[in-house]
Write a structure and sequence with these properties.
With 481 residues, the chain is mostly helical. The protein is built from 21 helices and nine strands. Helix 12 packs across helix 13. It binds zinc ion (ZN). Zinc ion (ZN) binds next to loops.
Length: 481
């Protein structure tokens, strides 16, 4: 088997990352972009928002086989394969009901390799090839023919000491990385990390959707659990708020500098305490209508902003995803299976109750994200371009891509400038893709800045400064890292 793989490897087409990738084709602009990139390419990675598993860093065990690392947990990968008729079962995606799915990682990998052409011109391919060539040193192009050779090479590399999670953290030159946890999470891995003598900085972020969203699975039980772990009486509105305060403080002790809110809309509300209390009674009793559930989420954004003013946690809103679009897939496989679809999102009216109350507070940082690109120039850049409490998060999810990042800069810069944005978030659970994602953002930003220099809207020394802000300093500052 090994011999056959080596034979095929010798004939396999090699994978090479072009040094000029993602730079403008025009020679003058390209040369400027290269000079800008030279200054930022080796800056440390600040990853203020993402979904890596703190267990990796706490336990530092080798990553498992190539399929379990690259395919099974990556909804960017399996949604594309699924769209061409490949059942999630065959890709090893675990079922919610425990029914059988493919468990042979090599078979899953071969299926991915046979369909690799589907990823042409997608960021998934770009991230994957960067991980393969740069992180793992496996410079072979993936195809049906090279599937086994690449699999064996990757599997072997994953067992080596320099591919363990902590070694990769160091090789990636990460300065700090944030994970995202529910208030119900005991944060045991974060606790272990803080007690260890490893110098890596892994912090948590407070993501209260399971206890804030009445339509979240198990909401009532989650709220009871929140009461149990905090010792607060979550049967009452005041007790529920006190439980959040206490939990936020515990998260802050575990390094958190931010909260994150994944609501369907960016709606906010400013109810009187009496109205809020009555609404809480309804949602907790499972009696709320869809409109009341939405109003409760809206009120909770304002409550979270109030708490942020007290405890200093930076607030993020990630709205506009209609989650679990396919009910059948949701029933069979659960959340986060690629069926989260963007919807139009209103910010101007939706945020007004919160902004009326706290928008002028420069001690509050509220970072807005969108899956509705039409909102960038019409709503988000004008809002962030005037309210001191607001900042714009980078291009997100479907738009965390070369084209998406370029459109973002083009749509927001003239109104919001660079300094109302917050650098880059990789927002990923795919640890090996982190360097590729940050490198993509740095290249795209340098390409954009180079164009501004070439048409004399910016001096090159200013562009150098901005490139450093976008790659590193703005994220540290906005997220208080
Ligand atoms: Zn996220």
């Amino acid at each position: 088997m090994a011999e056959r793989a080596a034979d095929r490897g010798a004939a396999a087409p090699s994978l090479r990352l072009a040094p000029d990738r993602l730079f403008p084709p025009d020679a003058t602009v390209r040369a400027i972009a290269q000079r800008l990139y030279e200054q930022v390419k080796d800056l440390p990675i600040v990853s203020p928002h993402g979904h890596t598993d703190p267990r990796w860093f706490a336990e530092n065990a080798p990553f498992p086989d190539p399929a379990t690392l690259f395919i099974v947990p990556d909804h960017y990968i399996f949604r594309m394969l699924h769209s061409q008729g490949i059942p999630l079962e065959r890709l090893g995606v675990p079922s919610a009901d425990g029914s059988a799915v493919e468990s042979d990682p090599r078979k899953i990998w071969r299926l991915f390799a046979e369909n690799y052409h589907l990823f042409r011109a997608t960021p998934s391919r770009y991230w994957f090839e960067h991980a393969l060539a740069e992180v793992l040193g496996v410079a072979i192009r993936l195809s049906a023919e090279t599937a086994d050779t690449v699999y064996d090479a990757v599997a072997a590399r994953l067992q080596s000491a320099d591919c363990r999670p902590r070694a990769l953290y160091e090789r990636f030159n990460i300065e700090v990385i944030a994970t995202t946890e529910s208030p119900l999470d005991p944060l045991e891995h974060h606790k272990a990390l803080r007690a260890s003598n490893w110098r890596g900085r892994v912090v948590t972020a407070y993501r209260p959707d399971p206890v804030v969203d009445p339509e979240f699975d198990g909401f009532a039980a989650n709220v009871s659990e929140l009461g149990r772990i905090t010792g607060c009486d979550t049967g009452s509105w005041q007790g529920y708020l006190a439980a959040h305060r206490q939990r936020r403080q515990y998260f802050a002790e575990m390094g958190a500098t931010s909260t994150d809110h994944g609501h369907p809309t960016s709606r906010t509300a400013d109810l009187s305490p009496r109205e809020a209390e009555a609404l809480y009674g309804k949602v907790r009793g499972g009696k709320a209508t869809a409109e009341e559930a939405e109003l409760f989420r809206a009120q909770m954004l304002t409550e979270m902003a109030r708490m942020s003013l007290e405890d200093g946690l930076v607030m993020q809103i990630h709205p506009g995803s209609l989650r679990n679009h396919s009910r059948a897939i949701y029933r069979r496989f659960g959340r986060d299976k690629g069926f989260d679809i963007p919807t139009p999102t209103d910010y101007v009216r939706a945020l007004r109750p919160l902004l009326d109350k706290f928008g002028e507070e420069s001690r509050l940082t509220l970072i807005l994200f969108t899956l509705d690109e039409t909102a960038y120039s019409r709503e988000l850049a004008p809002l962030a371009g005037v309210y001191p409490a607001l900042r714009l998060g980078p291009a997100w999810w479907f738009y965390d891509s070369p084209e998406g990042m370029r459109r973002y800069r083009e749509a927001v810069t003239e109104t919001a400038g660079f300094y109302n944005t917050v650098g880059f978030n990789d927002d990923t659970r795919a640890f090996l893709s982190i360097p590729a994602r940050h490198d993509t953002a740095r290249r795209v930003d340098c390409a954009y800045l180079a164009e501004l220099v070439a048409d004399h809207r910016l001096e090159e020394d200013e562009a150098h400064e901005v490139a450093g802000e976008l790659a590193y300093r703005l994220a540290k500052k906005a997220y208080k890292l």
